[in-house]
Amino acid sequence: MKGYFITGTDTDVGKTYVTCALARRALVHGHKVFAFKPIETGCAAGPNGELVGADQELLVNAAGGWQQGPYRGLYRFPLPAAPLVAAEAAQTTIDLARVIQTAHAGVATHQAAVTLVEGAGGWRVPIGPDADMSTLACNLALPVLVVARAGLGTINHTLLTIETIQRDGLAVAGVVLSRRATDDLEASQSNRVQITRRWPGLVLILDAESAILDCLLP
Predict the structure, then answer these.
(1) Where are the chain's structural domains?
(2) Residues with catalytic annotation?
(3) For all residues of the chain together, what is the average pLDDT?
(4) pTM score, whole prediction
(5) Phi, psi of 182, rounded to the nearest 5 degrees
């Protein structure tokens, strides 16, 4: 597989926004894309009573809308909590081997040139009693793209996440600071500078102009 595992410094930092933007840019450049969020919590019931993963649907549409069945997402839980907690509340478990197998099958089915697998929450969010998001990422062996807030607090959270990923043996392909309309641009740029003082990798600020992500594409 060629692509990225997308993790966040926390929940609600913009992982889906960044992953969708990257998927759309890949399509613009003519790449086949498999955008996969295997596990989603906090899902609401759809018109037929089935749970709908809002983030999963956004990713599928951003990748061209071809994904069906398990390739749209494997696990959906109503409780807005860590996957392990949400699964226990639903009296079930998450089969990590199934997630990995489905990811590989999705790539092969579409002959995807760019694979984007989005985690739920951050790097240490538990999936099972003995597994967390890092376990999934390590099994997929994709470079990791870290999504972080652009505003206050992001320097510490971002550097700690980078250090942990690298300690776990995976490459950090880059950091994307997801800037919202309410985030001060000067402060966001200052945060980028401070992160690069401690880590020499690629740090991007994403706002309305998604073409800045093109450097991450083949």
Answers:
(1) 3-216
(2) 37
(3) 97
(4) 0.97
(5) -85, -5
